[in-house]
Each structure stands twice: as structure tokens, then as C-alpha cells.
Amino acid sequence: MFLRLADQYRSLVCDLVMSLQALAQCLRQQGHVATCYVCGAEREHHGASFVADLGDTHVVRFLVSDFGISWVESRDGHELVKLEGAEAIQELHRVAAVLQEAPQQPMPMQATPAAPAS
Q1: What are the contacts of 56-61 at 24+ separation with CB within 8 A?
Q2: Are 72 and 44 in contact (CB under 8 A)?
Q3: Domains in the chain: how many in total?
Q4: Is 57 in contact with 76 (CB distance < 8 Å)?
Q5: What is the pLDDT along the chain (118 residues), one digit of tens a residue?
Q6: Residue numbers of the domain that contains 63
């Protein structure tokens, strides 16, 4: 059972990495500054670091690796929100949906209060 779960998690990481690469490319095409750095071989992605500047000093960072998944949102260099695991993936989904609805608008801030920095 544990080997199966490990394989499923590796598959999830790989899928997230591919999605982050596509999102970064889409954001760049819309005029945003976005990067996605990938760790691992082309078909064996072990993780990625996605960073996007969404305007008005609003920056998001999504990290995915074999060790975990996290989302950090900041403004003016101050961390506002930090999410991990499934909540981080849900926030990534929210951002992607907002970008599809209004690609030229600055991202609205999330209503969730900031989690304490670790």
C-alpha cells in the first residue's frame, strides 16, 4: 500500500509541475512576470518553484516537491498568506480561474487571514 501511495504522490508532483509550467507561460503571454523552475529530468519532475508578480507589488509563490506543497502570497515584501497541501492547490486553482475570467486585471487579495510565518 505504501509504495502505491508514494507512486501516486510522485505522479501528483509531476502533474503539478506541468500545470505550473503552463500557468507561467500563460501569465507571461498576458504580460505578467512569471517563472517556473523545475527540478529533475524532463519526464521525472521532482519539484518546481513557481513565482508570479501579479501587479501592485502582489507576488505569489507555489512550491511543489517530494517533500510537500506550499503557497505563499505577499504584498510589499510582507507575507500575507501561507498555505500547504490541499489548501495550497485549491488556492492555485482559484488564481488560475480568476486569471481566465479577467486576464488583464490585478489579482484580488484572498480573504483568508495570514498564517503565522514558520
Answers
A1: 56/106, 58/106, 58/107, 58/109, 60/95, 60/107
A2: no
A3: 1
A4: yes
A5: 999 999 999 899 989 999 999 999 988 888 888 999 998 776 666 899 999 988 888 899 999 988 899 999 999 999 999 999 999 999 999 987 887 665 455 555 454 444 444 4
A6: 2-101
Structural domain includes residue 9: yes
Answer yes or no: is 117 within a domain: no
Residue 92 covered by a domain: yes
Whole-prediction pTM: 0.79
**Nearest alpha carbon to residue 23 among 58, 52, 44:** 52
Residue 83 within a domain: yes
Query: CA quadruple 56, 50, 82, 8: dihedral positive or negative?
Result: positive
User: Under DSSP, is residue 5 helix (H, G, I), strand (E, B) or coil?
Assistant: helix
Q: Map residue 26 onto helix, strand or coil.
A: helix
Instruction: Name every residue whose Cβ is closer than 8 Å to that of residue 56 and which is 6 or more positions away in sequence.
Output: 75, 106
